[in-house]
Amino acid sequence: MASPEPEQVFQIDESPDETAISQLRKKDSSNGSNDEQGEEVVNILELGIDPTTTETGVANPANQMEDGDTDKNLEKEVVKKDKKKKKRARPARPQVDPSQVPERPPQQTGNVFNIWYNKWSGGDREDKYISQTKAEGRCNIAKDAGYTKADNIPGSYFCLFFARGLCPNGKNCNYLHRLPTITDIYNPNVDCFGRDKRSDYRDDMGGVGSFMRQNRTIYVGRITVSDDIEEVVARHFAEWGDIERIRVLNSRGVGFVTYVNEANAQFAKEAMAHQSLDHSEILNVRWATVDPNPLAKAREQRKLEEQAAEAVRRMLPPDFLEQLNAGALQPAKKRKT
Questions:
Q1: Max CA pair span of the chain
Q2: Predicted confidence band at 250 (pLDDT cuts at 50, 70, 90)?
Q3: Are strands 217-221 and 254-259 parallel, antiparallel or unpaired?
Q4: Which domains does the chain have, with CATH numbers?
């Protein structure tokens, strides 16, 4: 009986083929398409070669350097993001030294003190001496603005002393230390600082203003006449919010500044009162009277309606706005019977 044939054992050489490696090198040297790059990856996986190592199995130092560079770049991005967060969460800076603030009685804003409403009444004109005295401080939005205790309380008012550059409280202030935005909406009977408005303007168009109409235009007088007067006025008053238009009477040294938001006009009126521009003048800032032009009145009414619609739109959730823009929430048309 013949003996059984011995089983043949086939050994698979796991080492990469030299011809395959040479083909891989040729493909690396040539500028191939995306399909060729995909084939190279398949060949590398089939040959069992680690992409981070050379043919001899030694780690490629270039790839290690690239990995180290990516880690450093990620660390830099994280540091930049942290700096941005810290910049956004910057606390408000005290504008004056609290120890040097003298204790003064409340400012008298009228001629008669009303005990029922606990405030001054009367007095329709500002004192002539005060109107010709330079302001004690000036607000610097880039350095002074920041968060305060009022940021955690919805509906908080803005700090009047911050607008004038005289707030010693900083982050401990109970009022907002920033510029107003279009979403800052208050009762028409008060301004952005929480002061009560009157039914009519004062005789000199100063003071808080009137609740009978929204006034976004302020009058600026005593401007030093120069060749670049329009540029100077625009540069100084643009610090307090977005400006819709500026009109300057060069010969008279008078300007009218109209802001997009009424709260910004209120803030700018207090911030620029008795200030100076590029010269040593003392500005006379008042509320502007109503423009009698019918076209101006129609434009003002249309602007107020657009501003109200934009404020409501910003308060709506994003998903609802997407459906509204897509037309999914349009009312159904009535069928004809």
A1: 137
A2: confident
A3: antiparallel
A4: 206-322 (3.30.70.330)
